[in-house]
Amino acid sequence: MMNNVNWMTAYPEIFLLAMACLITLVDLWVKSPKRDLTYGLTMLTLGVVAVMQAFYAATGETVYGFGHMVVSDAMGNWLKCFATLAVMTTLVYGRPYAVDRKMLQGGELFILSLFSLLGMFVMISGNNFLVLYLGLELLTLSGYALVALRRDNSNATEAAMKYFVLGALASGFLLYGLSMMYGATGSLDLTAVFQATASGHIKHQVLVLGVVFVVCGIAFKLGAAPFHMWVPDVYQGAPTAVTLMIAGAPKLAAFALMMRLLVDGMLPMAIDWQQMLLVLAVLSLLIGNLSAIAQTNLKRLLAFSTIAQMGFVLIGMLAGVNNGNTLSAANAYSSAMFYMISYVLTTLGVFGVILLLAREGFESEEISDLAGLNQRSPLFAGVMAVCLFSLAGAPPLVGFFAKLSVLQALIASDQISSLVLAVFAVMMSLVGAFYYLRIIKVMYFDPPLTASTVSADSHVKIVLAINGGLVLVLGLLPGGLMSLCAVAVVKALGT
Predict the structure, then answer these.
(1) DSSP structure class, residue 63
(2) What is the pTM of this model?
(3) Virtual CA dihedral for 12, 15, 21, 24, nearest 10 degrees?
(4) How far apart (Å, rounded) are the C-alpha atoms in residues 267 and 450?
(5) Is the dihedral of CA 170, 175, 181, 187 positive or negative?
(6) Torsion angle of the four alpha carbons 310, 144, 107, 79, in this order, in degrees rounded to the nearest 10
(7) How many CB atoms neighbour CB 274 within 10 A?
(8) Are 216 and 277 in contact (CB under 8 A)?
(9) Cα 141 to Cα 434: distance, rounded to the nearest angstrom
(10) Looking at residues 57-65, what average pLDDT do you find?
(11) What is the pLDDT of residues 15-49, one digit of tens each?
C-alpha cells in the first residue's frame, strides 16, 4: 500500500475523460444519422476502460493517490469494470431506439453517457468527502441532461424537471450531512473520519445528525423509500434508453458511495446508521411491492420493482455489525455487492427487451404490449421470462442466490429482530412474484395484439442472448462471482 501521490490510481479516468473530449470534437464532423463513428469510438473507449479496470482489479492491490483523496482497490475496480460493461450494453440496446426517435441528430447520448460513467468512476474511487460529492454531481448533472434529451417530448421534459428539483434537494441533504461530519471530525478524509469517530472524543449528537442527512442523500440515489418519489416518474417519462442508463450502472456507483461513506468512514457509528437502513429497507420492500401490483405501465412497474429490490441491498448493509461485533461484516457487505451486480445484470435484460420491442411511433411501455410475445419472438420472450423470474427470486437463477445470500447474512446475527425482518422480506418477495408472473402470463398465454415479428440486428440479439444466459449461468454457478465479491470486500475492509 502506498500513500504518496500516484497517477496509476486515475489512469482509467484520465483516459475516459480524454476520449470523451475527443469524441465530442470528432462528433462535430459526423454526418451519419446513426452516428456510426461516434458510436464506434464510444464502444472502443468503453472496451479499453473495462479491460484496464479488470486488470487493476485482478492485481488486487490497494493504492492511494492524490494526497489520499483517491483509492484504487479491488472492490472499486470491479464495480467500475461492471459499470463500464453495463453502459456498453445499454448503448447497444438503446442505439436503435434512439435512431428511431431522432435522438442522434447530435452525439449527446454517447458523450453524456461517457461523462456519466466518469462521474461513477470518481464516486467509486473517492476517499474524500469532496471527491465523492464531485463524482456524484458529475453523474447526476449528466443524468438530468440525458432525461431531457428529447426536447420535443413533454413527458421527458417533465421527468427531467422533477429529477432535477428532487436531485438538487437530495444533493443538499448529502452535502449538509458531509459538512456536519467535517465540522465534528475536522477532516474530509474518510480514513481520518473513521479514526475520529472511533476515538469517541467528539460530540456524538453532531455526528448522528450528520449521519441522518448523509443516509437521506444515499437513500435518494438508491431510490429507496420514502425517498423514492422521483423513481416512477423519471423511469416512465424518460426515453427508455435513458431509463436504462439511470436504472443500471449508476446503482453500482450508489452502492460504492454507501460503502465508502458508511463503512469506510463511519463504521464505528454502525449502530446508528443501521437503524436508519432498517427503516428504509422495510419501507422500500412494502411500498415498492404493493405499489407495483397496481401498475399497468411496464416502466412504472419496474420502477417500483427497483425500489423493492433496493430494500434487499439495504438488508445486506444493515447486517454487517451486531452489538459492536464486525465478524460478519465481510459476508454481509459482499452479499449486498453480489445482489447489486445481479440486479443490474437482470435489469439490463428486461429493459433491453422493452427497447428492442419499441419501434418508431410505438413505445411498447404497457404490459398489454407484450401480449403473445412468445409467438412473435421466442428469444425475446425467453430472455424476458428468465430475467423476470430472477427478479422474483426463483431458483436456479442469479436473483434467487442473491436474495438467499442476503438473507443468510441477516439471519447469521442470531437476533429475533433479524429473523422477523427476514420473514418479512420473504413475504414481500412472494407479493412481488405476483406482478412478475403476471407479465410472463401475458407474454406466453395472451393472444398477440399484432402479427408483426420482432426484428433486431444480429449483434444486438447476440448481446441480449448473452445477457439472458448470464442470468441463468450465474444462478447455476454463483460461486465465482460470490467469491470475487467476498475477496474484494475483504480487501476493502482491510484497508
Answers:
(1) E
(2) 0.94
(3) -80
(4) 56
(5) positive
(6) -30
(7) 17
(8) no
(9) 36
(10) 86
(11) 999 999 999 999 888 888 888 899 999 999 999 99
